[in-house]
Amino acid sequence: MKATESNVVNKVDDEFWMRCALMLAQQATSVGEVSVGAVLVLNNKVIGIGYNNSIHYHDPTAHAEILALRCGGKILRNYRLLHTTLYVTLEPCIMCVGAMIHARINRLVFGAKDKKIGAVGSFMHILKYPGINHSISVTTGILNCLCSKQLSNFFKQRRRIKNIVFNK
Predict the structure, then answer these.
(1) Which residues are CB-neighbours of 99 under 8 A, at least 6 positions away?
(2) What is the pTM of this model?
(3) Does 15 qualify as catalytic in the annotation?
(4) pLDDT digits (tens, 9 = 90+) for 150-164
């Protein structure tokens, strides 16, 4: 299959926005949260950002995706986020995919797969469940190596700190 001009432009845009999500993931790491970042884009403009903040907010729903969707809803003054694309460094969980369906996002782009709880193909695929009333276009593996490395470095650092604290 030949790469069309549209596909090339999409890949460049996808990589650009995923790098933005990676910067947000780094912010999560810097405050001790699991290293996941998300950027919500409409017409090539950011309308929502988020990074994991469940620990800080004492809120199990404060995932990067949810925070980006909330921000987008406030910007658009609507809970329907039509024609938007959500970029996330890690494959979303069941909760986040459910929120994306309710928000009616157009497209999801994610970097690393999550075999433990990924709900867009790795552990399960919510979007292929019969009866789901909204279709979301999915692109996977954008900057996969960088996204995976970000997460693995976070967990290595966390284990190192845990070993220092508990081995004294």
Answers:
(1) 65, 66, 69
(2) 0.90
(3) no
(4) 998 888 887 776 666
